[in-house]
Automatic annotation (TrEMBL):
Coiled coil: none annotated. It comes from Dioscorea zingiberensis. Residues 113-316 form the Glycoside hydrolase family domain. It catalyses: Random hydrolysis of (1->4)-beta-D-mannosidic linkages in mannans, galactomannans and glucomannans. The lineage of its organism: Eukaryota, Viridiplantae, Streptophyta, Embryophyta, Tracheophyta. Keywords: Glycosidase, Hydrolase, Signal. GO terms for molecular function: mannan endo-1,4-beta-mannosidase activity. Its EC number is 3.2.1.78. Belongs to the glycosyl hydrolase 5 (cellulase A) family. This is mannan endo-1,4-beta-mannosidase. GO terms for biological process: polysaccharide catabolic process. Gene3D superfamilies: Glycosidases (3.20.20.80). It comes from the Eukaryota.
Length: 416
């Protein structure tokens, strides 16, 4: 009797699976059609661990393995209008061994509102409670999401913005935790030190940086903030410095933030945007590679010691056809073999420290593709045969996590 019920259930599920086996009509001009299988039943999805943290380190909750990140930004994913392009970008990222993509949870020109308002809270709620129509899983329950970020580069120069920003971070982070206890949260800071930290002001790129209403330590110290985030743009911040000066500056910037995260905050820190111009070739090396390598080396040193410097994400990768979303720091990785190689090397050496094979997470990631406006697309199976010397030949789990920003733009804080 019991068995019969079970068979009926299995039969029903198979039927459901068939119903969801369909052709997805292409968007826009109708040029793309993607064959999709949807089985939107949460417990049928492949198992995958959430990324959690143990003091200063990220840990994969399923495997217990430490997580040190090589990743990239593609802010345009939401706006690309093309599943095929998104899919292609994710595939290429994975081919370079990268495991985290940072992108926006809404489009440019999307909701903008004063911080703390009900509207902002409702955006958060909308995102966290949204069900992925491919897997039936709510975003708050989705392990393919690495973390939530509150806001990209919060800044406001008004005098009273410091305490307001601090209160806003606490309020938003608490609200997210009330709806979602599974994901980590970060702020999205550039990492500047504020006036209240005179001993650190020399690490800032200039006097201006202390007057932006933010302070790396105070803002990141909020209890519900799980890890710190820092950006790095020496070409924009100290444009007139020589390459050597920029590299030296960058090394100090990274050291200081890793040190503060390790010793003061006791939380991991991700360098979530590392960007530089593509300059003329100098004795066989490109400026960008020298600067990127500076950060990569620091992260690798941190990883070897099991310290707080938990990873770096390059700003930003694009693919052909997305030129309109390019900025001065964008690149198509394939067109810059030396940078491509550098990214690959970083992925491989970090993975050789902590890599564990986990087929399930790849499957899971593949299912996390129906985004707010059905944008995130299928990540095809692909080999990463480039990680020579790793004691595994299955590298298909590389792109296991997805890093989504809740909020992109700065809202200025009104004078209190
Ligand atoms: C956290 O890390 C410490 C040091 O490695 C270890 O002793 C402890 O068991 C870990 N805690 C958890 C909950 O994994
Ligand atoms: C901002 O601070 C400066 C220096 O402390 C002060 O001169 C100025 O009046 C303040 N402005 C406001 C609007 O509080
Ligand atoms: C860099 O040099 C240019 C031209 O010499 C100058 O106008 C600009 O103010 C300098 N920028 C900084 C940040 O020093
Ligand atoms: C690292 O942080 C500790 C604690 O704040 C501080 O005493 C030390 O001087 C820092 N070292 C460097 C190199 O910044
Ligand atoms: C390239 O030149 C710079 C000085 O301009 C020097 O510091 C660096 O070591 C050189 N790199 C190589 C690979 O020779
Ligand atoms: C993962 O998949 C590969 C290739 O499909 C297979 O050889 C390997 O045994 C799988 N690993 C696990 C842990 O299931
Ligand atoms: C992969 O999924 C299977 C079936 O759900 C499970 O038994 C196994 O423990 C999972 N492996 C890992 C590494 O999570
Ligand atoms: C995967 O690797 C195998 C062996 O190196 C190769 O034959 C195959 O074409 C590769 N597949 C893809 C999708 O790159």
């Amino acid at each position: 009797m019991r068995e019969r019920k079970l068979y009926a259930l299995i039969g029903g599920l198979l039927l459901l699976a068939v119903v969801y086996l369909n052709w997805e009509p292409g968007s826009g001009s109708g040029s793309e059609s993607v064959f999709e299988i949807r089985i939107p039943i949460p417990w049928l999805q492949p198992r995958m661990g959430f990324v959690t943290r143990n003091s200063t380190r990220f840990v994969d909750s399923e495997t217990g393995s430490l997580v040190y990140v090589t990743g990239w930004n593609s802010y345009w994913l939401m706006s690309s209008g093309s599943r095929v392009r998104v899919s292609e970008m994710l595939r290429r990222g994975r081919d370079m061994g990268m495991g985290v993509c940072r992108t926006w949870a809404f489009s440019d020109g999307g909701p903008q509102c004063p911080p703390g308002s009900m509207e902002w809270l409702s955006i958060i709620e909308t995102i966290l409670t949204r069900k992925n129509t491919y897997s039936g899983v709510m975003y708050s329950d989705e392990p393919a999401i690495f973390a939530w970020e509150l806001m990209n580069e919060p800044r406001c120069v008004s005098n009273s913005s410091g305490p307001l920003l601090q209160a806003w971070i606490a309020e938003m982070a608490s609200y997210i935790k009330s709806l979602d206890q599974k994901h980590l949260i970060t702020v999205g800071l550039e990492g500047f030190y504020g006036h209240q930290r005179p001993g650190r002001l020399g690490v800032n790129p200039g006097q201006w940086a202390a007057s932006l209403g933010s302070d790396f330590i105070q803002n990141s110290a909020v209890e519900q903030i799980d890890f710190a985030s820092v950006h790095a743009y020496p070409d924009s911040w100290i444009p007139n410095a020589s390459l050597e000066e920029k590299a030296k500056y960058l090394a100090r910037w990274v050291d200081s933030h890793v040190n503060d995260s390790q010793n003061v905050l006791k939380k991991p820190v991700l360098f979530t945007e590392v960007g530089s111009h593509f300059h003329v070739k100098k004795n066989g090396s490109y400026d960008r590679d020298i600067l990127l390598k500076t950060v990569y080396d620091k992260v690798y040193e941190s990883a070897k010691l099991g310290q707080a410097g938990a990873g770096a994400l390059i700003w930003q990768l694009v693919i052909e056809g997305m030129e309109s979303y390019q900025d001065e720091f964008s690149l198509i990785a394939k067109e810059h073999p030396s940078t491509y190689k550098l990214i690959m090397q970083q992925s491989c050496r970090l993975r050789s420290l902590f890599g564990k094979t986990d087929n399930n997470s790849t499957k899971r990631f593949n299912l996390f593709r129906d985004y707010l406006i059905k944008m995130i697309s299928f990540v095809g199976e692909s080999n990463v045969s480039h990680c020579q010397g790793l004691h595994t030949n299955n590298e298909q789990d590389l792109l296991k996590v997805y890093y989504v920003q809740l909020i992109i733009y700065l809202c200025c804080f009104k004078e209190a």
